[in-house]
Write a structure and sequence with these properties.
- With about 100 residues, the protein is mostly helical.
- The chain is built from 4 helices and no strands.
- The longest helix is centred in the C-terminal third of the chain and has 45 residues.
- The protein is rod-shaped.
- The relative contact order is 0.06.
- The mean pLDDT is about 75.
- It is a multi-pass membrane protein.
Length: about 100
Amino acid sequence: MDTSHGTLLLYQPLFSDSFLLPPLLPYIPLEFSLISIFQPFVNQGHPLHDLFPPRVWAIRIPIILILLGSAVVGSFLSVVMIRSNRKKAAKARAVEAGKKKA
């Protein structure tokens, strides 16, 4: 076993799973769109209706995913902005302290 990249081996499951998700994301809204378009033309008693959730979820799931994704992106951006402002403020305080000493 190669131990020179021990930390890489530790994170391997995380990376391998994360590479599978992006190619699948476009199919989720597409599937629910197709369900909502074609289900009205299939008889109500047909077994095909048992395979899919009710039509109302064709709207709910993409909206939930968009709101959740927007919240994650917004949270990430706010954390990055707060941290960068803290660094700038600390640097400004250090410059001020240097000027007072001189």
